[in-house]
């Protein structure tokens, strides 16, 4: 168990309670953190069955303490520990997902042990139910530097995942400054991310379907709010939203733009982070620093990968050399296809499915889906109209590859 508590005396008392008896059913190994920051670091390391959390810490207080831990603990149960017998706060914590609420002044050894055992049992049952439930795979697409083609790749990957996996796919624009998904795809959304937050308390599947821009045969699209955007939501709010709607999809592709602190917080709960880089020295340098930063924050190398965009006419760096340089695998290489991409953007649609750029993205999509490579020369004409099949828009002809 993890005890997040700033009082060394109380931590010693809890440790004694857990060690004084030989009841194997309630034997716990205690990990102690005295600040929220150190508690979150221990939480990121994993291997915990239950968390005992004091709300009043040197670097956080009250409901905000619980919200921070809840957004990082996954299915690990959290028992709130408070110095105050505050019934309204206790009810709020339980409604927000706490497994239990204990008051220090009335907590006893038997009460604590019983609460821990029950929380672990409920957490195991909940975890089994969660594993049985359909869960989406969330992929964050981030640019190591501006101008690497992050949004174009994210939009094409979402479209191709929809085709090759035949599953439900969501493309979400979380680059709240760039807001490029709307431009690249050519959609005209009626609602945006902001509307999802405004209706969060009553957001069921029917309402969600009316908020996203639905694309016949392609991914659903959730666009960023208009600029200047409403700053009343943060990365934790984004996490709560996607925890609520993830079961509607097999895949969720997030365009997070450049990896600023907001994007890094989003990337923490993604299954995989794809870093888009070019072969320029500036982009590769930023990419190396980004990989190091994410590793320092606990991101495993196997959940990171590189997408190399050959947009510059530079000497190609061998894949093995790139992998040795960054440690992360190269998921795909994107060809220099300036004319193909330019024509697509002029017509407000995705690049042609039969062009070199989309074929490279499709190979990435097939690898993600665990599918074999397509046979060379096979044209995927079924995808040719995806870019124009957004609801309410006429189908636009594909750009010429001549």
Output the keywords.
seven-stranded parallel beta sheet, 40% helix, 402 residues, 12 strands, five-stranded parallel beta sheet
Describe, in short, the structure shown:
This protein is of the alpha/beta class. It is built from 15 helices and twelve strands.
3D structure, described in words:
- The chain is 40% helix and 15% strand.
- It is α/β, with parallel strands linked by helices.
- Helix 13 links the parallel strand 11 (304-309) and strand 12.
- The chain is elongated.
Q: Let me know the number of strands.
A: 12
Unreliable stretches: 377-402
Strand and helix order: EHEHEHEHEHEHEHHHEHEHEHEHEHH
Mean pLDDT: 81
Give a topology summary.
Elements: E1 2-4, H1 8-19, E2 31-33, H2 36-45, E3 51-54, H3 63-70, E4 78-82, H4 87-95, E5 100-103, H5 109-132, E6 137-143, H6 150-165, E7 169-173, H7 181-185, H8 193-198, H9 205-211, E8 220-222, H10 235-245, E9 251-258, H11 261-268, E10 272-278, H12 281-296, E11 304-309, H13 319-326, E12 330-334, H14 338-346, H15 356-368
Parallel strand pairs: 1-2, 1-3, 3-4, 4-5, 6-9, 6-10, 7-8, 7-9, 10-11, 11-12
Helix pairs in contact: 6-15, 10-11
């Amino acid at each position: 168990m993890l005890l997040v508590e700033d009082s060394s005396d109380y931590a010693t008392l809890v440790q004694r309670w857990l060690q004084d008896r030989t009841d194997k059913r309630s034997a716990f190994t205690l990990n102690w953190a005295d600040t929220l920051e150190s508690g979150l670091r221990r939480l990121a390391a994993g291997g915990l069955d239950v968390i005992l959390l004091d709300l009043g810490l040197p670097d956080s207080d009250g409901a905000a303490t619980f919200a921070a831990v809840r957004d990082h603990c996954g299915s690990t149960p959290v028992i709130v520990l408070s110095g105050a017998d505050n019934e309204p706060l206790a009810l709020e914590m339980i409604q927000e997902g706490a497994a239990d609420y204990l008051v220090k002044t009335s907590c006893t050894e038997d009460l604590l042990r019983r609460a821990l055992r029950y929380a672990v049992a409920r957490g195991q049952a909940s975890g089994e139910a969660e594993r049985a439930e359909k869960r989406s795979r969330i992929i964050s697409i981030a640019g190591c530097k501006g101008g690497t083609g992050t949004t174009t790749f994210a939009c094409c990957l979402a479209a191709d995942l929809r085709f090759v996996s035949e599953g439900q796919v969501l493309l979400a624009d979380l680059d709240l400054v760039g807001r490029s998904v709307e431009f690249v795809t050519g959609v005209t959304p009626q609602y945006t991310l902001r509307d999802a937050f405004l209706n969060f308390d009553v957001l069921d599947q029917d309402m969600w379907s009316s908020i996203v821009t639905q694309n016949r045969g392609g991914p659903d699209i959730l666009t960023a709010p208009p600029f200047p955007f409403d700053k009343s939501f943060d990365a934790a709010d984004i996490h709560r939203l996607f925890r609520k709607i993830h079961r509607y999809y097999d895949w969720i592709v997030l365009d997070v733009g450049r990896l600023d602190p907001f994007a890094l917080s989003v990337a923490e709960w993604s299954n995989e982070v794809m870093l888009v880089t070019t072969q320029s020295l500036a982009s590769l340098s930023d990419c190396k620093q980004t990989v190091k930063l994410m590793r320092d924050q606990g991101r495993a190398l196997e959940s990171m990968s590189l997408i190399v965009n050959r947009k510059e006419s530079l000497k190609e760096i061998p894949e093995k050399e790139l992998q040795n340089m960054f440690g992360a695998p190269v998921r795909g290489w994107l060809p220099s296809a300036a004319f193909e991409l330019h024509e697509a953007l002029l017509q407000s649609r995705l690049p042609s499915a039969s062009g070199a750029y989309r074929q490279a993205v499709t190979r990435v999509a097939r690898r993600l889906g665990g599918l074999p490579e397509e046979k060379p020369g096979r044209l995927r004409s079924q995808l040719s109209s995806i870019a124009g099949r957004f609801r309410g828009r006429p189908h636009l002809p594909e750009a010429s590859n001549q």
